[in-house]
Amino acid sequence: QVQLVESGGGLVQPGGSLRLSCVVSGLPISIMPMGWYRQAPGTQRELVAIISSDGSTNYPDSVKGRFTMSRDNAKKAAYLQMNSLKPEDTAIYYCNTPEHLFTWGQGTQVTVSS
């Protein structure tokens, strides 16, 4: 059974940083791209970072230069380092596999506010 478990969110002031973690079970993630998504209230879920099986990454302009995704295949984990956070980054953050979306985990809440 596939499980996606996110953690690391919290309340942070604008300009602050957070590091999110995602641990995956039930999947051979070493051969799969992984993605971080977010959903703010009243909006659709959006992809904010993707990492291929070889470690190359891609980001939308809204987070480029501020967010960095990485992975540790041995730990079956993916990470999202978020710097220079803005209030508009406030959302629930989720991880998943972009090529085939599995049941979403509970996500981790990120709130950027002074």
Protein architecture, described:
There is one protein chain. The strands form two sheets. The protein has a six-stranded mixed beta sheet with strand order 2-10-9-4-5-6, with no helix packed on it. Strands 1-3-8-7 form a four-stranded antiparallel beta sheet, with no helix packed on it. The mean pLDDT is 96. 30% of the residues are buried. The protein is globular. It has strands at residues 3-7, 10-12, 18-25, 34-39, 46-51, 57-58, 67-72, 77-82, 91-96, 108-112. With 114 residues, the protein is an all-beta fold.
Range of strand content: over 45%
Nearest-angstrom radius of gyration? 13 Å
Sheet with most strands: strand arrangement: 2-10-9-4-5-6
Distance from N terminus to C terminus (CA atoms, Å) equals 40 Å
Most strands sheet: 6 strands, mixed
What labels would you give this structure?
114 residues, mainly beta, 4-stranded antiparallel β-sheet, 10 strands
